[in-house]
Specification:
heterodimer, A: alpha/beta, Hypothetical Protein Ychn, Chain: A, five-stranded parallel sheet, 5 strands, globular, B: alpha/beta
């Protein structure tokens, strides 16, 4: 199996409502991209809820995670993946998602992890 | 081969997600609240014993949590044992 020597997969597993951990995952992705490190992002489990459209986080006085997510292509971050069974579990319609994102089944997610040198879970 | 370190409590969605992805060639180390998963006779213990991976528990965390008398299928590790385990697996994935 091909493994890029420096590639990193970030796995984000918490909903935007659970503290700042979803934001930390995203900040890590952006920091890696700024330093030209190959990086991929996987939304897993409850983390798929970050992809819900029309999040009005300003009502809670928080910054918008979804707006930041939408900026990922501007940083040439286009390796974006979503846990398809979790998306189905939460009834998420991925066609409403503003990002071009690839749904993966369980065995494909495992392959994705093995294709990266480092896997960081958030 | 992945070393999974699981610190989420059983019942947490992350705990269940971890068990979905653990493979038979992997190792699973329970730390923090994850040690409650090894409570004897619990549903979470049954799920762990069923997952096929090599099973470890960080002994200091288990003792601190009062999780004793666990199944012999779990190997108790001290910190030095944890370090040795990380040397055996090229990838480590934290679930918390």
């Amino acid at each position: 199996m091909e493994t890029n020597p420096k590639s990193t997969l970030i796995v984000t597993r918490r909903s935007p409502c659970q503290g700042g951990i979803a934001k930390s995952a995203l900040d890590t992705v952006l920091a890696m991209a700024v330093f030209d490190q190959p990086v991929a992002l996987l939304f897993q489990g409850e983390g798929v809820l970050q992809l819900l459209p029309d999040q009005a986080t300003e009502l809670l006085g928080r910054g918008s995670l979804s707006r930041q997510l939408e900026s990922l292509p501007l940083y040439d971050i286009d390796s974006l993946f979503v846990d398809a069974p979790a998306a189905r579990h939460y009834g998420l319609d991925l066609t409403l998602c503003a990002l071009a994102i690839s749904p993966l089944e369980d065995s494909q997610i495992r392959d994705l992890m093995l294709q990266h040198h480092t896997v960081l879970g958030f | 081969m992945i070393l999974h370190t699981l610190s989420a409590a059983p019942g947490d969605s992350v705990y269940l997600d971890c068990l979905r992805f653990v493979g038979e060639e992997d190792a699973l180390l329970l730390v923090g609240s994850g040690v409650y998963g090894a409570l004897k006779g619990s549903a979470s213990e049954a799920a762990l014993l069923d997952c096929g991976a090599r099973l470890f528990i960080l002994s200091a965390h288990a003792e601190a949590a009062g999780v004793r008398n666990v199944s012999g299928l779990f190997t108790m590790l001290d910190m030095a044992g944890f370090v040795t385990l990380t040397e055996q697996y090229p990838r480590q994935l934290a679930w918390h």
